[in-house]
Amino acid sequence: MKVGAQVMLIKNVVQGTLVNGSVGSVIAFATVYEAIQHHIRIAGIDPEDKKFQGSEEDTLIEVSKALKLQYTEPGEEPQAQQQQSGSQPKFSIEEKWPLVRFTDGLLLLCTPVEFTVVGIKGNLEARRQQVPLILAWALSIHKSQGQTLERVKIDMEHIFEKGQAYVALSRARSMDGLQIFNFNHAKIQVHPLVLKWQEFWLSLGDEDAEFLDSEGAFDSFFEPFDDDDIL
Known about the structure:
Layout: E1 6-9, E2 23-30, H1 32-37, E3 41-42, H2 56-66, E4 70-72, E5 90-92, E6 97-102, E7 107-109, E8 113-118, E9 124-130, E10 133-135, H3 141-144, E11 152-155, H4 164-169, E12 178-181, H5 192-203, H6 209-212, H7 215-222, H8 227-230
Parallel strand pairs: 3-7, 4-5, 11-12
Antiparallel strand pairs: 1-2, 1-10, 2-6, 6-7, 8-9
């Protein structure tokens, strides 16, 4: 990973804003303390919290607690930072993390956050600390759902499911930012039930507006169909 790399979050960091699938570019590498000084949001903590407003050393100690990482003194020998099996990873004051500007303009210092694997009985099976980013020069259509992108290049050659073309094409904010490769009319497919729903919706008058807003509209429409029709 380097400055200029296009990256994607793989964990929700700021609910509703910076979430799994958010895309941005690495613009620099910075320490936690530098980010706090410049009021930059940090993955896993709120830099405006008063406990992060003390001296550099006190701030880093509080940050290490918040991020569940171990604090090491400046100048500590590298071998002293090697973690033991089962222990938490360590970082030092000098450690720098990727600073990412996302497509909506928000800045985030991507420090390690905790990922866990929970068993079917609710028991913790695994835990690790990881910077919540992956390289994202390309995305699958599935992964791009819900995103609005300034510039999109779409290869339609391997589209195989109804609605996929719509999802891909509708990611672009404008026609100026859209480029299509291997265009094929046959790849643009709509589920037959979607067409029937549109006909059903258009057949209703203004007096049925309240009915359309209710769950009953969907229930009454789908009632005649079995699961095989819907899937």
